[in-house]
Design a protein that fits this description.
By secondary structure, the chain is of the alpha+beta class. It has 4 domains: about 210 residues, Clc chloride channel, CATH 1.10.3080; about 200 residues, Clc chloride channel; about 140 residues, CBS-domain; about 90 residues, Alpha-Beta Plaits, CATH 3.30.70. The chain is built from 30 helices and 11 strands. α2 runs parallel beside α10, α5 runs parallel beside α7 and α11 packs parallel to α14. It is elongated and about 100 Å long.
Length: about 725
């Protein structure tokens, strides 16, 4: 048995090695990390599709256990006894209370918006690293909540499970932070795509909401994972649009004005939805007389009572949305129906749906906010459409068309992701006839809602933690000053003479040098302007020292402060470098503006930029340099080979022979190791260290002396030297 097991492992290793070679040869993936990443993209899609199907089955099992069937609750409620409508959600709430009691978490399960905020925060501040335990607890809570009839969506646990597994795989395989972030986006997109059969929408949602980045480097992997997950989900659950919308079309170009009005109305409705859900959480937080484990019992029981009279409020709202899209959601036949009454009915159901969502989420239920927001949007749009049709029957389309547009508009108004909302609606319905109204209303709703309410439904909970992340700032908020801090060898002592200060300025292109006092504390700074002013009294220069020239430093940054704070300081000043000091004012190093811009270019623009982080320690073995650079490139300090000593950089021809660029020359001087600006005429000396950026293979060969030996042999052959 043991021999057979060893043989199986050997065959598996051989297969992996063969696959590794095939990927390297066919796709040009010379770097092992690239090949692993390539495989992970597909694996994440497979896992996302399977997790989506498994989660859906578990939700169906919970619903069957509590309700007797896994069908749509809107059609199921008339068939069950009235006590079941109250008891099923209440029992689900009791299970949530048990989960809270067993796990001792702040809430039984973080709500949909908070859970999504967890992903956004992990990408922005933790390099995409997600702890598995909270996600698993959240997924279990969401399965119970949605299965019991809670007014939240099943997409929440699927997105977070996909992202968590992707993050875990990336960490186990020691992927760099920027690739773990991409994998988190792949997992989230795969989860959403598998949930609703929307590969394009899943891709854009992950990029627009979670990553906040549309770089091509990110787009490709996320599309691939989303497509794989969708194919697997379709193989298991079938391929059909989630919602059935009739073929609506624009009646007249003048009707665009009505759809613009819907965009404005959707913006205010979106803000009301976000504030209502937030109010639900605050209301339950004030129930101090009731122990936390009983909050979901109360909330879900109240939800069941509402469901007795307004069944549209329960569950995910699929049946409600389809009725609104078809224009079939009306008052009972025995009531005299008018369009105004139908509009009021839809508006009333929308308000009740909001209350149901606030009760579910506020009491501690878990799940996605995506699904209830689009159900609410369909009702708001349908209500608006009935009133417009009553006012201008020849101009306005049936209210089902406005319900479809309202879905996308409220989705955009709550998530601030209009591009995702537009394409998700088309994938939901399979109807592209309303593309112009959908685009107009979604953009207007998103812009207006964002202007009036800075935080989306997914980032609202971050404000409570004191985290203020705009998409651009989120990139820099994920790093601290210590991550980009450089040691500063060009400091001044307070007692240094004027001539010595001038000499140090002549040896550097910098405009400002920092003065370090006793104990290594930052005392101030001397600029070229300070030296110029001292020349007004030349007779006193011999008595002038750095202490006389320096001025106080008004802007400093601490090593644990986020980099987006540094951008604000740089924006308000002309400084190129900021001093980094600890809590006691001890000078630790400098933060350069160019390094900050390089990070921004890499993460926001998606451009492969050179990022350098110098990490120092008193332990000599701990001194190292960490870099993130373009694939297959290396940045390394290399001693000048003997055959290049005495030559200028132009004569060394390193770019032509190695494809490498000299970033800096480090040379021993009176003050220790000093940087020398690399220029064409710079003469290379014995003992110089070259900071080279170039192809990894060639730079490593030069560092090991292989290139030097070949070049020396060639030099001797050309000159005839022995």
């Amino acid at each position: 048995m043991e021999t057979r097991s060893r043989g199986w492992l050997r065959r598996l290793r051989d297969w992996a090695g063969s696959l590794d070679f095939t990927l390297a040869r066919r796709f040009g993936l010379a770097n092992r990390e690239d090949r692993l990443f390539f495989l992970l993209i597909g694996a994440v899609g497979v896992v996302g599709g399977l997790l989506g199907a498994a989660t859906d089955l578990l939700i169906g099992a919970v619903q069957t256990l509590l309700w007797g069937s896994s069908g749509d609750l809107l059609t199921l409620i008339p068939k069950v006894h009235r006590w079941v409508v109250v008891a099923a959600p209440a029992i689900g709430g009791a299970l949530l209370g048990v989960i809270y009691w067993r796990t001792r978490r702040r809430t039984p399960g973080e709500g949909g918006g908070e859970g999504m905020a967890m992903l956004i925060e992990a990408v922005a501040l933790s390099g995409g690293r997600i702890a598995p335990r909270p996600v698993l607890i959240n997924a279990l809570s969401a399965i119970v909540t949605v299965g019991a009839g809670g007014s939240l969506g099943r997409e929440g646990p699927m997105i977070r499970l996909g992202a968590m597994v992707s993050s875990w795989l990336g960490q186990r395989l020691e992927m760099p932070a920027h690739r773990i972030k991409i994998l988190v986006g792949c997992g989230a997109a795969a989860g959403l795509a598998a949930t609703y059969n929307i590969p394009i929408g899943g891709t854009l949602f992950a990029m627009e909401v979670i990553l906040g980045n549309f770089a091509l480097e990110i787009f490709g992997p996320i599309v691939a994972s989303s497509v794989v997950a969708t194919l697997i989900a379709r193989a298991i659950t079938g391929n059909r649009p989630l919602y059935a919308a009739p073929e609506y079309a624009l009646k007249s170009y003048w009707e665009m004005l009505l759809y613009a009005g819907l965009g404005v109305a959707a913006a205010f409705a979106s803000i009301l939805f976000m504030e209502g859900v937030k109010w639900g959480g605050k209301a339950f937080a004030k129930l101090r007389f009731l122990p936390r484990p009983f909050h979901p019992v109360l909330g879900m029981a109240l939800l069941g009572v509402i469901g007795l009279y307004v069944p549209y409020a329960l569950g995910r709202g699929y049946g409600t949305i389809n009725l609104a899209l078809a224009g079939s959601l009306k008052l009972p036949p025995h009531i005299a129906v008018s369009q105004e009454l139908t509009g009021l009915l839809l508006l009333g159901i929308a308000v009740v749906k909001l209350i149901a969502t606030a009760l579910t989420r506020g009491s501690g239920g878990a799940g996605g906010m995506f699904t209830p927001s689009i159900a609410y949007g369909a009702l708001i749009g349908g209500s608006y459409g009935t009133f417009m049709h009553a006012l201008w029957p020849r101009l306005a389309s049936p209210y089902g068309a406005y319900a479809a547009v309202g879905m996308a508009a409220v989705m955009a108004g709550t998530s601030y992701a209009p591009i995702s909302a537009i394409l998700i609606l088309f994938e939901f319905t399979g109807n592209y006839d309303l593309i112009l109204p959908v685009m107009l209303a979604s953009i207007l709703a998103s812009l207006l809602a964002r202007g009036l309410h800075p935080y989306s439904i997914y980032t609202e909970s971050l404000r409570g933690k004191g985290i203020d992340l705009r998409m651009e700032e989120a990139v820099l908020a994920g790093l601290k000053a210590r991550n980009l801090m450089r040691p500063d060898p060009q400091t001044l002592r307070r007692g240094e003479a004027y001539s010595e200060v001038v000499r140090k300025f002549l040896a550097t292109p910098r405009q400002r040098l920092f003065v370090v006092g006793d104990g290594g504390h930052l005392a101030g700074a001397v600029s070229l302007h300070d030296i110029k002013y001292a020349l007004e009294n030349p007779e006193t220069l011999t008595a002038v020292v750095a202490l006389d020239l320096m001025t106080p430093v008004d802007r400093v940054i601490h090593p644990d402060e986020r980099l987006h704070l540094a951008t604000e300081i740089f924006a308000q000043s002309d400084y190129e470098r900021l001093p980094v000091v600890d809590g006691e004012g001890k000078f630790l190093g400098i933060l350069a503006k160019r390094d900050l811009l390089a990070v921004y270019a890499q993460e926001v623009v998606g451009r492969p930029a050179l990022l350098t982080t110098f990490v120092s320690s008193r332990d000599a073995q701990a001194n190292r340099q960490y870099v993130e650079i373009p694939p297959d490139f290396a940045l390394r300090l290399v001693p000048v080979p003997p055959h290049l000593v005495g030559k200028t950089l132009a004569e060394a021809r390193l770019p032509q022979t190695l494809g490498a660029r000299v970033m800096e020359i480090r040379r021993r001087g009176e003050l220790g190791e000093e940087p020398v600006l690399p220029e064409a005429g710079t003469l290379l000396e014995t003992g110089d260290l070259l900071l080279l950026l170039g192809p990894a293979v060639k730079v490593e060969a030069l560092a090991e002396g292989k290139v030097a030996e070949e070049a020396l042999a060639q030099h001797q052959a050309e000159t005839g030297e022995a």
